[in-house]
Every structure is written in structure tokens, then in C-alpha cells.
Design brief:
Blueprint lengths: L9 H7 L9 H37 L7 H17 L4 H24 L1
Length: 115
């Protein structure tokens, strides 16, 4: 080839890669397993939280209460921002995450009001 560059078979390049590539590095795999475990726990915790908030939505509908409670929401955000700071987690991120959850809960509560 021109310029002395050889064309390599991609399979040969993979075979020549060091043994501890990012895909097989045991330390990285342990970290990833921990992340996977935490992600699973988050999913189950969120599922439990939504079971409770759906019960709250049904109760609010039966009691003819509004689906949203802005005062409670703001208090929760402030509380979670404080917890985030204690946990050395970005408070802005925690607020965005909680607002996303609150918006979804309110959507469920509004749906309960209509049924």
C-alpha cells in the first residue's frame, strides 16, 4: 500500500489487543456489577414509591383534593437538595430528578381524578 500503511483484518486487530481491555478488565467488571445492582435497587425503590403515590392519587380523587400540592412539592425539593448536599451529590441534579418524578406523580393523580 502507498505510504507503507498496511490494511489489517479487524479480527486480527482485536486478537492483538491487550488482555485487560475495557470489556474484560476485572476491576471494571466489578464496578459495572455494582452499578447494575444499584440500578436494579433504584428501579424497585421507584416502583414502590409509585405504588404509594398512586394510592395517594386515588385517595385525593375520592376526597376531591387537588392532584398537585405546590407547597409540599417545594418543601420536598428543598429537603432533597439538603440531602443531596450531605451525600455530596449535585443538588441541581437531584432537583431535576425529583421534579421529573413529581411531574409523573401529578400526571398519575390527574388521571385518577378523571376516572
Amino acid at each position: 500500500m502507498a505510504g507503507g500503511a498496511e490494511k489489517r483484518n479487524p479480527c486480527e486487530a482485536r486478537a492483538a489487543a491487550p488482555k485487560n481491555t475495557p470489556m474484560t478488565d476485572p476491576t471494571l467488571e466489578r464496578y459495572r456489577q455494582s452499578i447494575d445492582n444499584i440500578d436494579a435497587a433504584l428501579v424497585f425503590i421507584l416502583a414502590e414509591r409509585f405504588k404509594v403515590t398512586q394510592a395517594v392519587g386515588r385517595y385525593k380523587a375520592e376526597a376531591q383534593l387537588p392532584p398537585a400540592d405546590p407547597g409540599r412539592e417545594e418543601a420536598q425539593i428543598e429537603r432533597l437538595r439538603g440531602l443531596a448536599e450531605q451525600a455530596q451529590l449535585d443538588p441541581e441534579f437531584s432537583e431535576k430528578f425529583l421534579r421529573f418524578i413529581i411531574d409523573e406523580v401529578i400526571r398519575h393523580h390527574e388521571k385518577a381524578q378523571r376516572t
